[in-house]
Amino acid sequence: MKAHEIDYTIYGEEMQYVEIELDPQEVVIAEAGSFMMMDNGIQMETIFGDGSEQNQNSGLFGKLLSAGKRVLTGESLFMTAYINNNLGKSKACFASPYPGKIIPIDLAQFNGKFICQKDAFLCAAKGVAVGIEFSKKLGRGLFGGEGFIMQKLEGDGMAFVHSGGTLAKRELAHGEVLKVDTGCIVGFTQDVDYDIEFIGGIKNSLFGGEGLFYATLRGPGTVYVQSLPFSRLADRIIASAPKAGGSSREEGSILGGLGNLLDGDNRF
């Protein structure tokens, strides 16, 4: 085993967090902003890259290239390592950034590689390499939207990714096809063939409200799908937010603007 062997427990239902149990000198790496709490004696250290052997042995140019790839995914150049300097076991906890589920991924069971949405990675045992999976097909790059640039987790340790809303896990048989909204993909195993397909039809394209393209995932392999991508949640919040100088009256108000007048608020 190249990656550290860590034990874990996932708590909660809708807003989950994962508790990582570290033996002395064991390390867990995490994305900035995912930290929740930790025992005394665990040391936090900001590192350039993911701290994996692959990253450390790549030299300065390799590290800069790896960091540049992370910038493309919208992630920070740095990650945080949590080292247990105690003589006994200690625990560190990391929380999901929005309502959903945390998925434990044992990379040893997935032939050392798992592909996930660019913002899905939460934390992992030291030794897991966090990189990006570039699409080899032009169509994915032009029309893939959120699913264009995906992250890849490589190694033989435990990694944790998070999803939004309710999680669906599908085991695809050889040749079986699943069609998914690009933003609803959480991740899939490396054997799954991934492509972008045009929805088709003028009415669907203009008035369907679901975008022009969806992803096709062809088995064999395992696919994780989320019911509420963060981008969709953010769009709904922005659309429902009161405009500048407007009222914060609830969306379902029957009176609407007339209610504002009755309340003494004459702003529209």
Structural class: alpha+beta
**Total domains:** 1
Sheet with most strands: strand arrangement: 5-6-3-10-13-8
Identify the CATH class. Answer: Alpha Beta
CATH architecture: 4-Layer Sandwich
The level of helicity is 10-25%
What characteristic shape results from the CA principal axes?
globular
pLDDT < 50 stretches: 141-147, 204-209, 251-255
Organism: Flavobacterium stagni
Protein name: TIGR00266 family protein
InterPro entries: AIM24, AIM24_sf, Trp_RNA-bd_attenuator-like_dom
Pfam families: AIM24
Could you characterize what this model shows?
Pfam families: AIM24. With 268 residues, the chain is α+β, with helices and mostly antiparallel strands. The chain has one domain (7-239): Mitochondrial biogenesis AIM24 (Double-stranded beta-helix, 4-Layer Sandwich), CATH 3.60.160.10. The chain has helices at 53-56, 59-72, 138-143, 202-207, 230-240, 257-262, and strands at residues 7-11, 17-22, 27-30, 35-38, 42-48, 78-84, 90-95, 100-106, 113-116, 121-125, 129-133, 150-154, 158-164, 167-172, 177-180, 185-189, 193-198, 213-218, 221-226. The strands form four sheets. The chain has a six-stranded antiparallel sheet, with no helix packed on it. Strand 1 (7-11) and strand 2 form a beta hairpin. The protein is globular.
